[in-house]
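S.,

Sequence below, as promised.
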Amino acid sequence: MELVQRTKLFKIIKFSYHLHMKNLYKNILFICTLLLFGCGKNSGSDKSELTFFKVESTDFSRYINEKSLPENPNTYEDITLYNDEYPIEITLYKDGRWFYDLANLDDGTGTWKYEGGKIKLFATRTLFDMYIDIEAREKNAKKVAIRFSDRFGEKVLMMQKRSLESTDPAPNNQKQ
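The prediction came back faster than expected:
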């Protein structure tokens, strides 16, 4: 009888051990899965895949109007960088000033300077100051992007060039 009880007790202990190990393996598998997907590359952000180049100031000359900021800037006639999705328009002038038009915030002016291989824009608004960098996406700055932070965090926007000589179509949301 004692042998039968020992055998039953041994079977219970053995079953309990296997059940415990099975749960342990499940927990380890769960933790590894969390680590694998939680620490993996964020596929929703393509900012990490962008490459920027530090270029000479002359490489940006194609984006600068060869005149001072006029009293009433015309983004259709002057060389303008734009992005329709955000939407934003930026027009640079040789006197170190720039004009911007943000469809959701209105328009305004600020100053710009070339520094460290990029153009740094600054403007003061009533509620906040604007800091925007224009950076080259190619070694010759034929493609550029702007980098800035808004209330949602860092943004990088690819910009298009529009001018009278350009074949780029005008954005649909332009003021006339």
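The two ends are 101 Å apart (CA to CA).

Coffee later?
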